[in-house]
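Much of our argument rests on the idea that a fold can be written as discrete symbols. Part of our work consisted of pairing the sequence of a single chain with a tokenised description of its backbone. The amino acid sequence and the backbone structure tokens for this protein are reproduced below.
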Amino acid sequence: MMHLGQFNTLTILRFTAPGAYLGDDEDNVVLLPTKYIPEGAEIADEISVFLYLDSEDRIIATTLKPLVEINEFACLKVNQVSHFGAFMEWGIEKDLLVPFKEQNQKMEEGKTYIVYLYLDEATQRLVASSRIRRFLEFERVLVEENQEVDLLISNTTELGKNVIVNDTYSGLIYKNDIVRPLRYGERCKGYVKKVREDGKLDISLEKIGFIKMDDNCERILNYLSEHDGRMNLTDKSDPDTIREEVGMSKKTFKSAVGMLYKQKLVVINSDHIRIGDF
């Protein structure tokens, strides 16, 4: 069976002027235009292609890699707005439609928005939606505290940054846990601090517990080695200054420095920290 909105491994059946015809085990056939045929391809070769609908609603194959696949979120740019909705650039020839009813806010040409790609059951077309909450899972949360997860940075609130976790869950990085600038639409790694009763996740950008301290101890030692063994920071320093200099929260910084001190790797003075010479 062929699946729209994702990569399919198909077999080359024959070559024609328009391109190569590919087939699956159920005798379904799709065209791969000539410009996408890999050099040296032969009949009976298996090939991985992405399937979507062309402007005439025919299934078409491409070897181009789209910016989003079905049942995933992505931050995409609006190329055009028409009476049908907004059309977004997603890495293949035909722009991706976000109908007006699927827009959380009225989209504008040239701006970027986080959207979810899905197959509309009524029309059997691939469409996108910026009403992202209804595509998130709150009931069956299959991640655990301290687990590393993939993040998509979403909007800013009074509490911090909303994030989409593993393309499935809703998460929040609290202001006090933001140790570096985060861009809307950025993808990065994070760690689950807490799974809340409402199905939302509290997220940290740093590893939690002893593993986190190990990584941050190494970061501080690297900083000291690159700055002649001295750091003009202490546990009394301003939190924003600490974040700017070493990219971690004040709480994390104090814990890491404490571990280094216990291991006699640093000396703590009233106005600076230096590599130890006990």
Summary: The chain has three helices and 18 strands. The two ends are 69 Å apart (CA to CA). The helical segments are 210-226, 239-246, 250-262.
